[in-house]
Design brief:
By secondary structure, the protein is mainly α. 68% of the residues lie in helices and 0% in strands. It has helices at 2-17, 21-24, 48-57, 60-68, 72-87, 90-104, 108-122, 126-133, 136-141, 144-153. The longest helix is centred in the N-terminal third of the chain and has 16 residues, at 2-17. The N and C termini lie far apart (81 Å).
């Protein structure tokens, strides 16, 4: 009778306290299984400027065939970017391509930091953007090359 009570008590403790019966008895359950880290969001592969350039060089038929293979949301996103990209003068396209290449050459952790700062800057009015780019915090947290990328991306390249 005492064994049944003990087993029942351990089962109840396991259910209520998320404790395994082995742990409730003070025994080891074997090697701990490491928890998996949550999946990281997928980054687009390759250089987006090159991708846009590649699409812009395709014939309309080839472009439509390639775009038809994409999910609708991705297709719409690429079509919008392609339209904006094609409207840029060649010099601005080249500047954009160089900026993307410089960004791609940053280590992953620095890409994340620059990307996050760009998102913050885009949410600010222009006057606050300029103040933020000139702030000691940005100068402290970003290399001169990263600061230049931030400034160019915000349309203020000659401020360093």
């Amino acid at each position: 009778m005492q064994v049944r009570s003990l087993v029942g008590l351990m089962a109840l403790a396991a259910a209520l306290g998320n404790v395994s019966p082995l742990a409730a008895q003070g025994r080891k359950a074997g090697p701990a299984v490491p928890r998996r880290a949550p999946p990281q969001p997928r980054r687009p592969q390759g250089n987006p400027a090159r991708e846009l350039d590649r699409f812009s060089r395709m014939s309309p038929k080839e472009r439509q065939e390639q775009l038809a293979k994409l999910p609708p949301a991705r297709r719409q996103q690429i079509e919008q970017r392609l339209e904006r990209y094609q409207k840029l003068p060649p010099q601005q396209r080249e500047q954009l391509r160089k900026r993307y290449e410089a960004f791609q050459n940053l280590p992953d952790d620095r890409q994340d930091a620059v990307r996050e700062e760009l998102q913050n800057l885009r949410g600010l009015p222009p006057a606050q953007r300029k103040s933020r780019l000139d702030s000691p915090e940005v100068r402290q947290n970003f290399s001169p090359e990263e600061q230049q990328l931030l400034r160019e991306s915000m349309g203020q390249p000659d401020m360093l």
